[in-house]
Amino acid sequence: MRLFEATHVFKHDWETVSLANWRKYPNDKTPHVRHVEVLNQDVDPETGVLRTERLIMVKQNVPTLLRKLFGGDASYVLEYSEVDPRQKSMMMQSQNMTFSNVLSVGEHILYKPDPDNLDHTQFIQSAQLKASTALCRLANKVEDMCWNRFKDNAQIGKLGLEQVVSKILAERQEMVMAQVVE
Known about the structure:
The chain is α+β, with helices and mostly antiparallel strands. The protein is 33% helix and 42% strand. It has helices spanning 14-22, 64-70, 138-181; strands spanning 2-10, 33-43, 50-59, 74-84, 89-96, 103-114, 117-131. A hairpin with a 6-residue loop joins strand 2 and strand 3. Helix 1 (14-22) crosses helix 3. The longest helix is centred in the C-terminal third of the chain and has 44 residues, at 138-181. The protein is elongated.
């Protein structure tokens, strides 16, 4: 089993970063994410917490042999999230659905205001990657390879989120300028 942990501070407020998260796909930084489908979504009328369940289709670069063995290079991830606007927290958990009997990848993400600067957003990410014991000696190599890919994708995902934040800030600026002109 391999564990992945990362933290990052986005130099933008929680509201902007959490909005950008919902608009993150598609973007040119993460072309491997092909489709996102909302399966269920509701708001708790008492707490205001938004709960969402999404199915995400991902297309990975898989070696030809594995593609033939497992029947393709598309995989699906189930994501569950909770956004609490009062506490300013966004929690996301995801688990791969495809090939989970061969490799299980569970991820947990938390966005919250940075305690050192409340105008910034703290991003905390952890993941557990576990190859099937049926793979025996290959398990460690599979976990290492997937851990490296996960690490690379995590960095790319942060860049994609920053790209969306920039778009949101530009849209806000355009709206302000349009109001000034009127």
